[in-house]
Design brief:
Chain A: This is Quaternary amine transport ATP-binding protein. Chain A: One of its GO terms (molecular function) is ABC-type quaternary ammonium compound transporting activity. Chain A: Residues 316-373 form the CBS domain. The complex is a heterodimer of chains A (386) and B (221). In chain A, a hairpin with a 2-residue loop joins β4 (59-64) and β5. Chain A has 386 residues and is of the alpha/beta class. Chain A is built from 17 helices and 16 strands. Chain A has a six-stranded mixed beta sheet, with helices on both faces. In chain A, strands 2-1-4-5 form a four-stranded antiparallel beta sheet. Chain A folds into two domains: 2-251, Rossmann fold (3-Layer(aba) Sandwich), CATH 3.40.50; 255-363, CBS-domain, CATH 3.10.580. Chain A has helices spanning 44-51, 74-79, 96-100, 102-106, 111-124, 129-132, 142-154, 172-189, 200-206, 224-229, 234-240, 244-247, 254-257, 271-281, 302-307, 329-339, 359-378, and strands spanning 2-13, 16-28, 33-37, 59-64, 67-68, 81-85, 160-164, 192-197, 209-214, 217-222, 264-265, 286-290, 296-301, 323-324, 343-347, 353-358. Chain B is elongated and about 65 Å long. Chain B has one domain: MetI-like fold (Orthogonal Bundle). By secondary structure, chain B is an all-alpha fold. In chain B, α6 (113-121) crosses α7 and α8 packs antiparallel against α9. The chains are: A alpha/beta (386), B mainly alpha (221).
Chain lengths: 386, 221
């Protein structure tokens, strides 16, 4: 757990004192990722760097796992905090193995132990130890280098990690891959992480909580969903962007919105039955046809059912797409737009139909948080659910 | 032909003088490296000190070598060493300071700030940063400074023959005083060849000392 207590940094510049961080107090609970987000010069990086004293605080305290770090030896403090920077900063004169074992060596581990740790770390970041340990940083791609940068920070298994725009210099495709890998690792490692970013999408994707900074002050510190649904003021709202409701699509899973009520037909049913069922359920365009294992095999359109006679098995169209319970709504929306569909069947792990997701349900779900807030604004007696 | 014949006839003397020459420059630049590198590192901590030291070193280089030998004669005579080996070594030692200090200072200062921050951030002490990161990265540029000092001072040392320090300069000084162009030219050519050969040898050493990871992405010649 990281606790900041009135952490303040004042820089003396020729133009006078500049308050880079103004009485920042916040907690990062153990095992969570907290993203510090804001425009450049907002104090997020200064705040991060005060934790490992790359920047010396003017006043205020930092607690790590309840312990006041003020009296700790700077080098000891830093060796127990993983540190990843945007420029990566691998030492070009050292091999990959030497780079990732720097901290264990500083901590006095014996050779067998740190050599083994190097191999463990490589496995953790999905890089082949034998292929990479003896190579030099300049032989690696940017994405590989930053994986090594993360491995170096994790080497001595510190409980806390500080990451300063760690994926900022990596191309967008690799960045997404590394972000996903990192989140997967974090699920097992459960480090307490403070992470500086200027990318709102990254913040929402990576953060358990997001802290928005402006001009040295902490403006809002909330879970990403709360942040998007209830920005505290106009600055936060504008920083999040006009499409902030869309950004929430990333955060909501199909299982949160899915309706398990879905009518289907079998290949052996007649088109007449299909038409009747479409009308009964009030479907606009089509009904799903499933096989005996309840796997989706086709669509019977309303037009076809009305104009033709025969069995469903002879007159179906292909299912445009299916979604799973773990997909996020952004993917669902994208599929709906590309397939010109207003609903999609949802399948479980065995590919059996378990429900459907409709555009109406999605907009309703996303809108409910906004409506709750507006209702609260109209009626000040009731409080917003936070 | 006459020249080659002369050189071959005096091959033993030529070899002795060459060894003398190398020994003089080697000892002087060796000591200069041992003093110049720590000074160069030390002044990276203090900008004003750095400017003062580099300024002083630059001024020393502007003193003509003959003048420097002249100044040292009365001073070193006090300990009975007015001419010969000691003043020659001291002169070269002084001339070597500028390239070595300046290159060390520049190399350490030019270490990528991101690397320095990474080294601090993972908990290296200032000495560990120097030993594990900054000096290894600075070695190619420091070695380039040493090379400059050596080549420069192979020339300076030729003049030290006038104060009886020996070395290949003896051929030149005798050639002049005896109006013997053979000695003069053989001495001059030998000094030049020595400079070129030593320069390439040190270039090889420099490449060997360059951390392998840095050879791969930069062409430090």
């Amino acid at each position: 757990m990281i606790q900041l207590d009135n952490l303040t940094k004042v820089f003396d510049t020729p133009k006078g004192a500049v308050v880079a961080a103004d009485h920042i107090s916040m907690d990062v609970p153990s095992g969570e990722i907290c993203i510090l987000l804001g425009p450049s010069g907002c104090g997020k990086t200064t705040t991060l760097k005060m934790i490992n004293r790359i920047v010396k605080p003017t006043s205020g305290k930092v607690f790590i796992n309840g312990e006041d770090t003020t009296g700790m030896n700077t080098q000891d403090l830093r060796r127990n905090i993983g540190y990843v920077i945007q420029q990566i900063g691998l030492f070009p004169n050292m091999t990959i193995e030497e780079n990732i074992t720097v901290v264990p060596k500083l901590l006095g581990w014996n050779k067998a132990r740190y050599k083994e740790r190097a191999r463990e770390l490589m496995a953790m970041i999905s890089m082949e130890p034998d292929a990479f340990l003896k190579r030099f940083p300049s032989e690696l791609s940017g994405g590989q280098q930053q994986r090594i940068g993360v491995a170096r920070a994790l080497a001595a298994d510190p409980p806390v990690m500080l990451m300063d725009e760690p994926f900022g210099a990596i191309d967008p495709i690799n960045r997404a891959v590394i972000q996903d890998e990192f989140l997967k690792m974090q699920q097992e490692l459960k480090k307490t992480i403070m992470f500086v970013s200027h990318d709102i999408d990254e913040a929402i994707k990576m953060g358990d909580r997001v802290a928005i900074f402006r001009e040295g002050k902490l403006v809002q510190h909330s879970a990403p969903d709360d942040l998007l649904a209830a920005p505290k003021n106009a600055f936060v709202e504008s920083f999040l962007g006009e499409d902030r409701a869309l950004k929430r699509l990333n955060l909501v899973k199909v299982k949160d919105v899915v309706s398990d009520e879905i009518a289907t037909v079998k290949p052996g049913d007649t088109l007449e039955t299909a038409l009747a069922r479409i009308d009964d359920y009030g479907y606009q365009n089509a009904i799903l046809m499933v096989n005996d294992q309840r796997q989706p095999v086709g669509l019977i359109t309303r037009a076809k059912a009305r104009t033709t006679k025969g069995y469903c098995r002879d007159h179906f169209e292909n299912v445009p797409a299916t979604v799973t319970l773990e997909d996020d709504l952004r993917k669902v929306a994208s599929l709906m737009f590309s397939q010109d569909a207003t609903w999609l069947p949802c399948v479980d792990d065995d590919g059996r139909v378990c429900g459907q997701i409709t555009q109406r349900a999605m907009t309703h779900h996303l809108g409910s948080r906004f409506r709750a807030r507006e209702a609260a604004a109209r009626n000040p007696d009731s409080t917003v659910e936070e | 032909m006459e020249l080659i014949q002369y050189a071959l006839d005096n091959i033993d003397l030529l070899a002795t003088r060459t060894v003398e020459h190398i020994a003089l420059v080697g000892v002087a630049v060796g000591i200069a490296t041992l003093t110049g590198v720590p000074i160069g590192i030390a002044i990276t901590k203090n900008e004003r000190m750095a400017q003062a030291v580099l300024y002083a070193a630059s001024i020393i280089v502007t003193i003509p070598s003959i003048a420097l030998f002249g100044i040292m004669i009365p001073v070193l005579s006090l300990i009975g060493q007015g001419i010969g080996y000691l003043p020659a070594v001291i002169a070269v030692l002084l001339y070597s300071q500028l390239p070595i200090i300046r290159n060390t200072y520049t190399a350490i200062n030019n270490v990528d700030p991101a690397l320095r921050e990474a080294a601090r951030g993972i908990g290296m002490s200032p000495n560990q940063r120097l030993r594990l990161v900054e000096i290894p990265l600075a070695v190619p540029v420091i070695m380039a400074g040493v090379r400059t000092a050596v080549v420069l001072n192979i020339g300076v040392m030729a003049i030290a023959a006038y104060i009886g320090a020996g070395g290949l300069g003896t051929f030149i000084s005798r050639g002049i005083s005896q109006s013997d162009p053979r000695q003069l030219i053989v001495g001059a050519v030998a000094v030049s060849l020595l400079a070129i050969i030593v320069d390439y040898t040190l270039l090889y050493v420099q490449k060997r000392l360059t951390p392998r990871g840095m050879e791969l992405d930069t062409s430090t010649a």
